[in-house]
Amino acid sequence: MCKMVAETISSGNKILLCGNGGSAADAQHIAAELVGRFKKERPSMGALALTVDTSVLTALGNDYGFENIFSRQVEGLGRKGDLLIGISTSGNSPNVLKAMRKAREMGMKTAGLTGSNEDAALKSVSDVLVAVPTKDTPRIQEAHILIGHVMCDYVETNVKG
């Protein structure tokens, strides 16, 4: 996943992230580290959490249904060559899965973060999947932010600005 993020940024494309609840917070946290900085000063990197615009989220939820809040944003904001990172502790969040499918339709790359659910549908829509080997949601979420930090460190070290 780290290499995929670095290649996406290096090619001038952006990272979109989505998730619900604690995973939404993780998406925002990772996007902030890329746009701002993780550990060192460097040029800003293109990243956007699809969880931050309350007007968009509530309008899409009201007009299109909650299961479409991320896919509709992917459709409007994503471009071929961008990367969508879908975060779902269960691996079965309908709105994350729909966004991942839309991203693939558009020629975007997809990466998933989940827990150890054998039936996780996120596997089938992810070019790369990182599954934390537990079903304990707090441990999964803690591991996801650690993975996000490792990814940001890798990107800062390997992408020349």
CATH superfamily: Glucose-6-phosphate isomerase like protein, domain 1
Portion of residues in beta strands equals: 5-15%
* Class per helix and strand makeup: alpha/beta
Poorly predicted segments: none
Number of domains: 1
Can you walk through the features of this model?
This protein is an alpha/beta fold and 161 residues long. The chain has helices at 2-10, 22-35, 54-64, 69-77, 94-105, 137-158; strands at residues 15-18, 47-49, 83-87, 109-114, 128-131. The model has no long low-confidence stretch (mean pLDDT 97). It has a 5-stranded parallel sheet, with helices on both faces. The protein has one domain (2-158): Glucose-6-phosphate isomerase like protein, domain 1 (Rossmann fold), CATH 3.40.50.10490. The two termini are 20 Å apart.
Key features?
14% strand, five-stranded parallel sheet, 161 residues, single chain
Short summary:
The chain is an alpha/beta fold and 161 residues long.
SSE blueprint:
Blueprint: H1 2-10, E1 15-18, H2 22-35, E2 47-49, H3 54-64, H4 69-77, E3 83-87, H5 94-105, E4 109-114, E5 128-131, H6 137-158
Parallel strand pairs: 1-2, 1-3, 3-4, 4-5
Helix pairs in contact: 1-6, 2-6, 3-4, 4-5
